[in-house]
Amino acid sequence: MIEGRVAELHQLIEEEIKRHRYGETPDSLYEPIRYIMSLGGKRIRPLLVLMAYELFDKDPKEIVSQAVAVELFHNFTLMHDDIMDRAPIRRGKPTVHEKWGDNTAILSGDVMMVKSYELFLESGVSNLKEILSFFNTCAVEVCEGQQLDMDFETRTEVTEAEYLEMIRLKTAVLLGFSMRLGAMMAGAGNNPSKLLESFAMNIGVGFQLMDDMLDVFGDASKFGKQEGGDIIANKKTYLLIEALEKANPEERKTLDFWLNVTEFDPAEKVRAVKTVYNQIGIPELSRIKMNEYFDLGLNKLDQLEIHDERKLPLRNFIDALIRRDH
């Protein structure tokens, strides 16, 4: 449950999202945007923008549109990712391509990208060119991460280092940009902005490792996605990479069978691979690795020369996310 200051900022974001129509005609282009933006979610990225801004004694209401720009971009990437992954469910509801088809989902996603730039341009801050330069770099890196993710599906071997770099690009850099954006719009110096970016990027890698584990071992009804979707799609997650490296011959035989079979019952495949993961101790290995990144990130936050009391809402927010089960 969202509480306290975070709940107030979350409400600001939701009100701003509801206020936007994104466009009117044709409705078939804009309704999918309103649909995916209305599905809720934790709104982690826009919250980080506002919380970073507030760290420097600024009123977050001044930049809520730019925080929503980040959420708009994030949902654009989700809309396109869902097409590539053939994902049927997003946040417990049908994905956009399931409801409107691939072509509309592609076009609506493209409009979301353009609209995110429009919201940035509305800010009128003096360092807008620098902000957009960082955003462009981030956007390209997200695409690089998604391409690597797809490339890994057809490769027989992916190293742990390659995987961690992929999730840094695909997931963590946007969290880092979110905090850097808030700091830059608040007029913070380069060092605080970089510390906050590094904090969020490390936390982001930890979050993705957590999501990988929740995809397999979490409660599907809470997680809002297809249970074991990564296993079904043969995604080279940290869990699979570690399992392939540490499996004994019999366990490796089982994993190789399910990685190469073309016709199968999805539920049976998920059960079989989960059994191997449990035999090897993959859940505990994953927890150790994600906690390494959480500790790295929180250490960066500790280095930020701002009174601990001002950092407390952000720290509590991250702690709650670390303890989540979906």
SSE blueprint and pairings:
Blueprint: H1 4-19, H2 27-37, H3 44-55, H4 64-85, E1 89-90, E2 93-94, H5 96-100, H6 102-121, H7 128-153, H8 160-185, H9 190-217, H10 220-223, H11 229-232, H12 238-246, H13 249-260, H14 266-280, H15 282-303, H16 308-322
Antiparallel strand pairs: 1-2
Helix pairs in contact: 1-3, 1-4, 2-6, 3-4, 3-8, 3-16, 4-6, 7-8, 8-9, 9-15, 12-15, 13-14, 15-16
Provide a compact summary of the structure.
The protein has 326 residues and is mainly α. 76% of the residues lie in helices and 1% in strands. The chain has a two-stranded antiparallel ribbon.
- Most strands sheet: 2 strands, antiparallel
Oligomer: single chain
Shape: globular
| Strand order, sheet with most strands | 1-2
One letter per element, helices H and strands E, the order comes to HHHHEEHHHHHHHHHHHH
Class by alpha and beta content: mainly alpha
How far apart the termini lie comes to 12 Å
Percent of residues in β-strands: under 5%
- The beta-strand count equals 2
For this structure, what is the CATH homologous superfamily? Farnesyl Diphosphate Synthase
Determine the fraction of residues in helical runs and give it as a percent range: over 70%
Query: How many domains make up the coordinates?
Result: 1
What's the CATH architecture?
A: Orthogonal Bundle
Number of helices: 16
**pLDDT < 50 runs, ≥5 residues:** none
CATH topology category name: Farnesyl Diphosphate Synthase
Q: For the record, what CATH class applies?
A: Mainly Alpha
